[in-house]
Design brief:
The protein is built from four helices and no strands. The protein is mainly alpha-helical. The longest helix is centred in the N-terminal third of the chain and has 23 residues.
């Protein structure tokens, strides 16, 4: 099983690239993604603040699950949007493990 720290290393840089672009491209038709963007920024800040420790992200992941309907990808979006939800879901799962 992949740990949270391993996934964080694997996904964080790509998420930092994808999330703002997806928000810009799909934000008008999927305004909930602006919330995802805000929560992702909070997660990133907490991860950086925690350094090598485990950040406290229970609230942020709970909010993401609610906003995204458990990371359900809308049918009218691009692969980057889908990739963001997949990476966030993987991080969430590893965090909860």
């Amino acid at each position: 099983m992949t740990t949270f720290n391993e996934l964080k290393e694997k996904h964080l840089a790509r998420l930092e690239q994808y999330v703002p672009v997806v928000a810009r491209v799909h934000g008008d038709t999927h305004p909930e993604f602006h919330e995802v963007h805000k929560i992702f920024n909070a997660i990133t800040a907490k991860i950086k603040e925690a350094g090598s420790g485990k950040p406290k992200l229970d609230l942020e992941f709970k909010q993401l699950r609610e906003i995204t309907d458990n990371y359900t990808v809308p049918s009218d979006v691009c692969e980057s949007y889908e990739a963001v939800y997949k990476m966030l879901a993987e991080l969430d799962g590893a965090y909860q493990a």
